[in-house]
Specification:
Blueprint lengths: L1 E5 L6 H14 L4 E5 L4 E5 L4 H10 L6
Antiparallel strand pairs: 1-3, 2-3
Helix pairs in contact: 1-2
Length: 64
């Protein structure tokens, strides 16, 4: 399943690395695409959306 999340606080390369590491902690096999200018991340994973939303919020990137 593909999840689309808007992360308004993701603004730089450091943010991209943190978001990537967080997604991979939730699901090491997940694939993701990040559109930094749009503050958007697409995650391909079988894990539930809430697992990613909570993990990203815990890292300071709440989904809008």
């Amino acid at each position: 399943m593909t999840l689309e999340l808007k992360l308004p606080d993701m603004t730089c390369g450091h943010c991209v690395r943190t978001v990537t590491a967080t997604v991979q902690r939730v699901d090491p096999g997940a694939t993701l695409r990040i559109d930094l200018p749009a503050h958007q991340v697409s995650i391909e994973s079988a894990q539930p959306r809430e697992a990613f939303v909570q993990a990203l919020a815990d890292e300071g990137y709440p989904a809008a």
